[in-house]
Amino acid sequence: MGLNTVNTFDLSGRVAIVTGSNTGLGAGMAVALAAAGCDIVGVSRAGPGDTASRIAATGRRFADVRADLASIAPVDDIVRAAVEAFGRIDVLVNNAGIIRRDDALEFSIDDWDAVMDVNLKSLFFLSQAAARQFVKQGDGGKIINVASMLSFQGGIRVASYTASKSGVLGLTRLLANEWAAQGINVNAIAPGYMATANTAALRDDAQRNDEILGRIPANRWGAPEDLAGPVVFLASSASDYVHGHTLAVDGGWLAR
Ligand code: NAP
Fold this sequence. Notes:
Blueprint: E1 15-19, H1 24-35, E2 39-44, H2 51-56, E3 62-66, H3 75-86, E4 91-94, H4 109-137, E5 141-146, H5 159-179, E6 184-191, H6 200-204, H7 206-213, H8 228-235, E7 246-249
Helix pairs in contact: 1-8, 3-4, 4-5
The structure holds NADP nicotinamide-adenine-dinucleotide phosphate.
Protein name: 2-dehydro-3-deoxy-D-gluconate 5-dehydrogenase KduD
EC number: 1.1.1.127
Enzyme class: oxidoreductase
């Protein structure tokens, strides 16, 4: 690692895969990584939306990969497409995720499986596919999982989401334990309450909105841009000795 602290955040020439890069937090993280120098492989179901033009505006390259992470069938193809596009991969951001809400007494098998498949099963097997590529390349890599406040807390009416995001925190530690010695950093970002489609239902409910805001010391919902610094840090050599950590980016929510 160089002695110039600022340059350790430089991602020039690196290649990052970001799942769910078409919107919300994934779009924010993809644009931030590009602004720091990464070429971006954006994984989406229906196309990249304005993420492709936002990446182009940073001067970096963008590869559009279509995949449905409701199953693990596409994971090897995602890594293969990234390597075909840009020759290698350096960073994987496992951001794609869904939430289903219902009382635990009523919670359906479908709402359980759908959330666990995208948020946990595909995250694990895409990490495995990426790590196999990192090992083949021989010079390490960075995996950044997207966890949640419900990696630390129980939540309410979101059984499969809490199970999946608590699982993300555990898997982040397990994968760090297994892969740290090979120069692969596995860490997670736990966003607090961020204004995206994922939380529209909460923000539309005036009572829940007030309850949540009243507990955030920063006194505002987070924005995708709030993840820019943390994701660049965890993707860069500035974090080379950070392994298995879940970094809350929550306006102070967990401090309350
Ligand atoms: P969002 O706006 O709903 O975006 C979710 C992303 O995941 C979209 O790109 C979506 O693609 C993608 N995705 C969902 N199912 C997929 C599938 N089967 N295959 C491929 N991609 C799929 O929500 P967000 O808030 O940005 O959420 C991003 C991540 O942050 C999630 O893991 C979420 O749990 C986590 N998170 C969010 C908050 C928050 O407050 N917003 C807090 C903590 C954690 P489509 O557009 O095709 O559906």
